[in-house]
Amino acid sequence: MTVHNIVSGDTLWGIVKKNYNLTNNTDIANMVNKVAKANGISNPDKIYAGKTIQLVDVQEKNEDTFVRTTNDESTSQGGAVKNVSNPMSSKDDKTQVTAKEENNNNTEVSPTVQKAIDEKLASKDLKSYEDINKAENTTVNLFAQNATDEEKEKAYTDFSNGILKSYNADGDGTVTVEEFAQKEYADNIKASELTVDAFGGEVSEQNKLASQRLGNIFAQNLDINQNGKIDTEEMNFFNKTADAMDGQQDGQISTAYEKVLFSSIIGTNVDNKELQAVTEKYFEGIQLTDEEQKIFDEGMKTINKSMRDMSGID
Question: N or C: less crowded end of the chain, CB within 10 Å?
């Protein structure tokens, strides 16, 4: 293990972020907890100058966290989501439908897809710190290898609708950007609360702000056509892209690739160093300068355009 000598001004968050080259706040938080546990630190927010801490091996870290690699096909380039493969290329020209409209077709969901929906929702229903680690390794399967194109398309749609239902707070069948962002925020805060319960302390204001901003930006960018709601087609784009990240659109969607795609969509997994630095600063709750705000806004527009181009959603 690598030993780090703590100096005045150090935080465990900053030490982990620098030493492991992490950019995603969720990955950093997970690694902070690992290092804290390895060193018997009951409160990760409290470390003391003059002490030393041991950093867990990189090999152990890589089992649970995902470091940005610019040569990986799942990274993005220049602020845009890199086109791993176009998961929407086989879609027809049907009009976009909301979860409510799609569900009104009353088509039966296959047992395989229903199991995938149940497993994915269960992984988000966190009740203990151990559940967080289990969720990191979740992979769901939507269809068999011999499924027809029609069966695959229906499986993606049914799965997307099933997940969207969990975001529909008012039950009207339409998921607004605000509803989606609030659910993302609630899930992030729940994970943070369980983490501090396990190690002591309390959820910091920085963590709360970061969770809120992460949820907001993800929801805003996933709203590809910018109509104020997350439609089935947009959710399909996310699920199909995550599925295709291993080079095979085989219906197996893992949390690992969802996290990488999430990082691309919010701008922390990009090759544009300037945008990446500004985005990280924003999620840390630091006030952006006028120039940095301009870089951030333009970067988000580039990401949205890339997603529109990849998905064909207007």
Answer: C
